[in-house]
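Follow-up to my post from last week.
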Amino acid sequence: MHVHDYFDDLTRRDWDTGTDGPDGTVRFAVVGVGGFARKAALPAIADGDYAEATVLVTGSPGDVEDITEEHGIERVLTYEEYHDGAATDAYDAVYVVTPNALHPEAIETAAGQGKAVLSEKPLAATVEGAKRAVAACEDANVPLMTAYRMQFDPVVRRLRELVGEGGVGDPLQLHGGFAFEVLGGSRGPDQWRLDADLAGGGALMDVGVYPLNTARYLVDADPVAVTATTRGEGVFADVDEQIAFQLEFPDGVTASFTAGFSGYRESHLSIRGTEGRVELSDSAFGTEDARRVSVYRDDVRAVVDGPETSEIREEFDYFAHAVLTGGEIAPDGEEGLRDVQVTAAAYEAAESGERVEIRYSRE
Amino acid sequence: MHVHDYFDDLTRRDWDTGTDGPDGTVRFAVVGVGGFARKAALPAIADGDYAEATVLVTGSPGDVEDITEEHGIERVLTYEEYHDGAATDAYDAVYVVTPNALHPEAIETAAGQGKAVLSEKPLAATVEGAKRAVAACEDANVPLMTAYRMQFDPVVRRLRELVGEGGVGDPLQLHGGFAFEVLGGSRGPDQWRLDADLAGGGALMDVGVYPLNTARYLVDADPVAVTATTRGEGVFADVDEQIAFQLEFPDGVTASFTAGFSGYRESHLSIRGTEGRVELSDSAFGTEDARRVSVYRDDVRAVVDGPETSEIREEFDYFAHAVLTGGEIAPDGEEGLRDVQVTAAAYEAAESGERVEIRYSRE
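User reply:
Got it. Predicted complex:
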């Protein structure tokens, strides 16, 4: 096994094995039009092969005229119109990008209309909300995917193959951290990310889920227990401004993770195994950043600098391709629920000072 | 403040401010002659300005003839002879490099003879032993230093100045790990590092103390609480083969640390603060390795590759200089005791699954 075997033909779409690809596109209703939808998701949809945006759902229809024109949007709906079933002929699938607490009701409405759903992470602000979302899509027999964009970065997909085939031996210990200035740029304190009811928490819910979910994806296992420490003050009194959380996976594998809403940025992930070590950096989790993978084995370090592939475009095309071909969906709603269960356990651990076993019950 | 201000004149001995330096040398009895004494400490003493080795204390006098000749050793003593006070005229200070559990009795004997003591880390295998060692030296009014070689690496000393003067703002979150194959090379399972009674624990006691003590040194604070997870099996059934431990410092600062006795090597330390981030790598904690410091601030990364300075030579010269001049000793025995108190709390946390507050009591 050679490192370069994994990273040759790096950007290949392992999920797109047909010779011609499916006909047509999946038409999306984008539910929630904040900064991420505008600056990241809509351009990625426009850039893709199998997806297009045809409907916007927003509480401020007057504020989206610029992007309506730019992206050829057919209909702009209020939330009330969306929930009432307006213009369902104008879209095939729903992309939910509201504040976390509003995901379940947007997902339930989509499921009731028989639409496939792609929901931003975390799947919900609470375990109960995530369970509702999963149940609604199962009952309606519609696909539900949780939008973990990292899983669609081709560098990360290749890295998972390498780890899964023993590229570092058996994983032993992980480190990871993701932190940014949530109040940076034009973002003031009046944002939903600092509202515990809307967000479900702070740095852990917004950025801590990146090392969490990426680790679960790379080592293909779910954590069984967690300890955690949080802090927050001032405008962060309601949520975790900083969190350090330590996960136990089966067989005693551990992950030492941190997340932050203030202070200098950080974005790294590493896995040490019995036979080697891999690092994802520069930055590990940044939106649409080119990523560096370093693989250490024996006395060799191999470095692969990935291309500036849009993992969000890849994500939309993956989802749309699966919808068009009836293919498998991963990460699904169940995976999104599991991460919310981990975050709930982490907050319980931070509150109690005790190691909390994670309950993945569906009840 | 510029990064290069700290790393100009990098290898200067900030502790050696006299123009000529003291006269003479400190003559050491080296108590315990294992691999570290032979391969690292004795060459470092020989290379220094203020130290020389004149006496060896060993359980196997027949095995040290080669180094006796090479280093011009005057006397070789058995442990019994050492504890009985043989040849005390032949040495001024004692360097204790036995298995951890034997440090206190070697230190007590040295203190009883009025000799200054440099003891390897950790100071003892138990809190009780560390307290005995500190009390013996205080009662005899002799200097006691804990041999944290990292504190004498000039790169680490400069980094402490940078952090102490706000080079990363206020520290927020640390990550660190140190792991190596304790069974690698010619080292089999019959070594004291795998004996809980002699070592006081496993990976945490032997290598986990490096990120722990280096972090305390760099941020100039003591942790207040800890959670931890350990695993060990087979020849490691008695001790922690792997440990992940999460420390809380005052003001909610956290450190996410790991240590390991098996698997691929790891050696890194980073501090994320309100205004910047620093990383120590390549390798952060390896013996006599050249270290790389990366300082991130604003959008700039400054990298300093340190020289291959022997931090062990620096350590012996620092200690000997302090003994010759009556200067201050740091890290002292109290600091060594504190680290043993942290490790005891970490093991208690791993056993109970609970956050354990660290007790720094001297009682």
